[in-house]
Design goal:
single chain, about 600 residues, alpha/beta, Jelly Rolls, Immunoglobulin-like, TIM Barrel, 6-stranded antiparallel sheet, about 30% strand, binds (2S,3S,4S,5R)-3,4,5-trihydroxy-6-oxo-oxane-2-carboxylic acid, hydrolase, hydrolase activity, glycosidase, GH2_Domain-Containing
Length: about 600
């Protein structure tokens, strides 16, 4: 009984105190902040001796809460026993995954401790937020030796309210990052990408007024493009506070009052707006003001909807000339580290004449979506509900829903983002159908101004390639992966096949492609050669074009990427070679086949 109570208490504690603060501050990069990026000291801890005592009890759940590496102790006298030392430990760059920075960590999965020192001069009338863009996968965060909380999920941001917890002068933050794969997590144990561990995105300390603008959405209404709609939410949940939304260049301004929960609904009739599109990525300066706070944003305005088999952007039928990409820089073999890396990837997509990118298979950096806004690339944004998730575990569902909601919360003001994807290649079955349907409903509850997608699979019967996944009912698009010419059949034989699609919706091929080792040349029947991949694209394009409803595609994939599943020592060597661009930045032959097709399509849809 006593034991049970103890565990119950621990569970309660972990739920109430030890989770990241729920509501993210919108546009944290647009607020006053200091960056905690830079070189952090790290300790590799495969046995987690900095977290558990020798009876395997977590130090941070003992009465004193002391004893873990998060104390960052220094030896005070010559007799004292301390078996770690951050100051004498090596450093790595943050943001940055550990696998690509330290050779011996290339395959490491487990716990690493990271510590950064910083100076703060907290004011008594301000609010302070410690923000992490992403830590893969489970992060325990401590400030000045005290636990702030835990966050799970490797690709979404989280934050802690540290008001009253900062010292005037030197402070230290310690993160225990653990990238161990687990069956019940999102993603699960099996993925076709590198499990890069660590603090992979920006860390910052933001200063806000004590009453601040917590969140906002300013977008064109889905049903009425002559109306900007949305809301402003203040941190102070009280009625009658005034907020203003001002778009000076468009001559639009409105003032509204909050309800009892601190939310003010926004409605601005539009006179004339220069609409955002890939050809015209117009962003307006938007200022949001409350009595005590002001935030500036750049926002584009566009509508997106489907009608029959058409996708309409600002009312006009569009073809999504896309490419899939991972959040990985093939040249340095690690996660994208910042704006330069991100621009390189999107610029390559532009060179292919894309107007659209699929940011697979998880939430990419917030800056990536901001760059897409600026550069004029439409975005398919996805959560890592990938392959064989634990469909029947309610905690797994909650985790997936949280990652999805956090992504939507974060990126809901981006004109570029037009599709929220709830997952990739999830296997048919009743529990999966329930799980995925709930996610689709959640998206519609949170955001009615975008489309809902998922990368489905095909199956074959004779020469029919069939798409009849019941989840299709819940989606706005028929979006599916098909690997004709690579995992089934040879490229030349594809013309024998025809598509049999159950739904009368716009068709988007979310993946198609095959591997080629750059520089390996042979005839078109020789697997792994550039000629094989080129021939695959040459046969796939007319094959896909037999579908009258084809409105877009994101072939797999822009660049070669690292994956522990890819074992062939010569052709793969832990690389998935389906990239149209190699790990040295060389464009393979197939790149130009797809580019030609996109040039023609662009002219057709002008
Ligand atoms: C897929 C997956 C993708 C893989 C790809 C492949 O269907 O969605 O994550 O990397 O196939 O190369 O097999």
């Amino acid at each position: 009984m006593i034991k049970l109570n103890k565990y119950l208490l621990l569970l309660l504690l972990s739920v109430t105190f030890f989770s990241a603060n729920a509501q993210l501050v919108q546009n944290i990069f647009g607020r006053k902040h200091i960056s905690l990026n830079g070189r952090w000291n790290y300790i590799i801890d495969p046995y987690e001796m900095g977290y558990y005592d020798y009876r395997h009890e977590p130090f941070d759940q003992t009465k004193s809460g002391k004893g873990g590496f998060y104390d960052d102790r220094e030896q005070m006298n010559k007799s004292e026993l301390i078996e770690y030392n951050f100051d004498l430990s090596p450093t790595m760059k943050i943001p940055g995954d550990w696998n690509s920075q330290v050779e011996k960590l290339q395959f490491y999965e487990g716990t690493i401790w990271l510590r950064q020192k910083f100076i703060a001069n907290p004011a008594t009338d301000k609010k302070y937020v410690l923000y992490f863009g992403a830590v893969n996968y489970e992060a325990h965060v401590y400030l000045n030796g005290k636990k702030l909380g835990v966050h799970k999920g490797g690709f979404t941001p989280f934050q802690f309210d540290v008001t009253g917890k900062l010292k005037d002068g030197e402070n230290f933050v310690v993160v225990k990052a653990d990238n161990t794969r687990k069956q019940d997590e999102i993603p699960t144990v099996n993925t076709d990408w590198w499990n890069y561990g660590g603090i992979t995105r920006d860390v910052l300390l933001a200063e806000l007024p004590s009453d601040y603008i917590l969140d906002y959405k300013v977008q064109l209404s889905r049903s009425n493009p002559k109306q900007i709609e949305g809301f402003v939410k203040l941190s102070n949940a009280a009625a009658g506070q005034t907020v203003t939304v001002d778009i000076p260049e468009a001559g639009l301004k409105t003032t509204a009052k909050t309800d009892a929960s601190g939310i003010a609904k926004i409605n601005i009739p539009v006179k004339k707006l220069n609409l955002w599109s890939p050809e015209n990525p117009k962003l307006y300066q938007v200022s949001i003001t409350s009595a005590t706070d002001k935030v500036d944003e750049k926002i584009g305005f566009r509508t997106i909807e489907t009608r029959g088999q058409d996708i309409l952007l600002n009312g006009k039928s569009i073809f999504l000339r896309g490419i899939s990409m991972h959040d990985e820089n093939p040249l340095i073999q690690g996660r994208l580290r910042g704006e330069g890396d991100m621009r390189m990837m999107l610029q390559w997509a532009k060179e292919l004449n894309c107007n659209y990118v699929r940011l697979a298979h998880y939430t990419h950096n917030e800056q990536m979506n901001r760059l897409a806004d600026e550069m004029g690339l439409l975005v398919w944004a996805e959560v890592p509900v990938y392959w064989t998730i634990s469909w029947e575990n309610p905690n797994t569902y909650q985790n997936a829903e949280k990652q999805l909601s956090d992504m939507i919360e974060r990126d809901k003001n981006r004109a570029a983002v037009i599709i929220w994807s709830i997952g990739n290649e999830t296997p048919l079955g009743e529990p999966r159908f329930k799980f995925m349907s709930k996610l689709a409903d959640k998206v519609r509850e949170l955001d009615q101004t975008r489309l809902v997608g998922a990368a489905l699979e095909v199956h074959r019967k004779g020469f029919n390639v069939i798409v009849d996944d019941p989840l299709g009912e819940k989606l706005d698009l028929v979006s599916f992966n098909q690997y004709g010419g690579w995992y089934w059949e040879l490229p030349k034989e594809l013309s024998k096949y025809k598509f049999d699609i159950k739904y009368n919706k716009p068709v988007i091929i979310t993946e198609v492609g095959g591997d080629a080792l750059a520089g390996y040349h042979a005839d078109e029947d020789t697997r792994w050669s550039e000629e094989f991949q080129e021939s695959l694209y040459k046969h796939q394009i007319p094959f896909m074009n037999t579908m009258s409803g084809l409105r877009g595609m994101t072939p797999w994939i822009l660049t070669d990427f690292r994956s522990p599943r890819r074992q062939h020592p010569f052709f793969q060597d832990f690389w998935n070679r389906k990239g149209l661009i190699s790990e040295t930045g060389k464009k393979k032959k197939a790149f130009f086949v797809l580019k030609d097709f996109y040039d023609q399509t662009a002219a057709k849809y002008k």
